Amino acid sequence: MADRKLERRTILDPAVAGLLNDMENRQSDAALPRREREKKARERAKMTARRDQRATFDLPPALRQRIMELAEAERLPASQLVTLALARFLQDLSAGGLDLAPLKQPSRSPRYDWNLVLPEGLLPAAPKKTIKRK
Amino acid sequence: MGKTTTAVTIADGLARRGLKTLLVDLDPQGHTAVALGLKKSPGLYRLICLGEPLQRIVQNARPNLDILPGDKQTEKVKRQITLSDFRESILLDILQDTDYQVVMLDLAPSFDVLHVNGLVASDWVLIPTRLDALAVDGVKEILLTMGEVARRGHAFQGFSILPTFFDRTTRETLVQFKEIVTAFGSRVWPPIPQDTKVREASAYGKTMWEYAPESASMAGYVEGKLRLGGYRQIMERMMEVING
Questions:
Q1: What's the pLDDT tens digit per position in A49-60?
Q2: Are the C-beta atoms of residues B207 and B9 closer than 8 Å to each other?
Q3: Interface of A with B in 13-32 (CB under 8 A)
Q4: Which residue of B has its CA nearest to A12?
Q5: Which of A28, B118, B193, B216 is deepest in the core (most CB within 10 A)?
Q6: pTM for the whole thing?
Q7: What percent of chain B shows pLDDT beyond 90?
């Protein structure tokens, strides 16, 4: 296994980090030809605009795999499928069609009071790992 | 460094949010009063050398904002303090029993007995600095003095560094900004952009909230939907400090 490079990460004020990042980008772009500079600026603006739409959650690999397969089969972006799934879930929850109470188990974590224990068979089966034999 | 502008802008900002605020000028230049459209006067001298009560000397500058002005007589205060017993805590003893919700001290850049008095009387320190090598060195000197004060038993709740006169287009600003951010991390607050309106406001004796509330030094840089830096953002950080 390659050695992981350990670095001390400095926590910054978010506005300071944003400004520093912006200044570094401007400075590195300054040496580029105009067309490339404009292209980079457009890409950066697109990324910044999408920042509010991004979220990170831990998901079971099987569920993630199933979403990716479905997205490929339907030829749709996976993000849109996940959006649909979550919107339907929230709709069901607020309409009373779904009750979380029976699924909740006390958590030992100091951060959370409960864990959600999903009923067996709800999640798709885990993808089979391919084992190479010599 | 923009010390007086920062002190006046934040003090008026706090007063506008309904906090009863006292701004004390510890600099013999006496610019705090001028920046608020008042005359310099020997307020600190009367308080410490003549022993007059604080409430008789303070001047009301704006709603919820009083100032204890200073002038060149402040130099005499230093001599008086030097000759006194328990000299480091003279200002603390006077200010700790006031009924103000916030007391802000505008310190001179010199390292003398009044500077130490100001630090001993402070729970929390904001250090405005330009971004050039000498100014950044000045920040380190202030932090060393704070370290000395802390070693003698004073517990600071915290400090932050506020880059001022910030010009994001120059390479030198980036170099110094990186250096200060690397050294002090989250202690560095978003910077105050360079802004001619600040000089104009002082000349008219108005605060930035009155003269140019939407100018660059107040509103910061626009980056997409975000605003980065500027005194408005600093006010949010300040309120977090005050509310603990």
A1: 787 788 888 899
A2: yes
A3: 13, 15-16, 18-20, 22-24, 26-27
A4: B186
A5: B193
A6: 0.73
A7: 62
